[in-house]
Specification:
The chain is an alpha+beta fold. The chain has helices at 22-27, 58-63, 70-75, 80-89, 100-104, 108-119, and strands spanning 18-20, 37-40, 43-46, 90-94. It has a single domain (18-119), classed as Flavocytochrome B2, Chain A, domain 1, CATH 3.10.120. Strand 2 (37-40) and strand 3 (43-46) form a beta hairpin. The protein binds protoporphyrin IX containing FE (HEM).
């Protein structure tokens, strides 16, 4: 019989992700003691602490506080390591119907495409 002295501890971490509205993201713009959130590819990131660590500088990140930084993030040509870094700051996704981007899209066909994109 195996000894009872042996204990195996399983640690199960359940990560809960939330869905935020565009208004919530916009409110968390680093001003008046608020955290710094930003959207990249439909996901919401809390980069409040990362501001002081970002190799591209904190000022650049603050420009996108409370905003969608997808284009800027892609254009900066980030490495695979930077993509991995993203995971550390992810707090949820943005509610599609409330995003500014979708309201700008005129045709229903395009709206459907965007909704499908955010489903996955
Ligand atoms: C949470 C979001 C972000 C993460 C995790 C991140 C991460 C990183 C990392 C790890 C680097 C070092 C180079 C590399 O590995 O690619 C970097 C560089 C850089 N990032 Fe970001 N970044 C973020 C957002 C942004 C945004 C929104 C901009 C907007 C313009 C930006 C602009 C830059 C630039 C210009 C550099 C190059 C700095 C240099 O080579 O001197 N980053 N970023």
């Amino acid at each position: 019989m195996a000894t009872l002295d042996l204990y195996v501890q399983f640690k199960v971490e359940i990560q809960t992700m939330s869905i935020y509205t565009m208004e919530e993201v916009r409110a968390n713009n680093g001003q008046n003691g608020r955290p710094v959130w930003m959207i990249i590819k439909g996901k919401v990131y809390n980069v409040s602490e990362f501001i002081f660590k970002h190799p591209g500088g904190g000022v650049l990140l603050l420009e996108y506080a409370g905003k969608d930084a997808t284009k800027a993030f892609n254009q900066a040509g980030h490495s695979a390591d930077a993509m991995k870094d993203l995971l550390k700051y992810e707090i949820g996704t943005v509610e599609v119907s409330k995003t500014e981007d979708i309201s700008k899209i005129k045709s229903n066909k395009e709206k459907k495409k965007v909704k499908l994109f955010f489903c996955f």
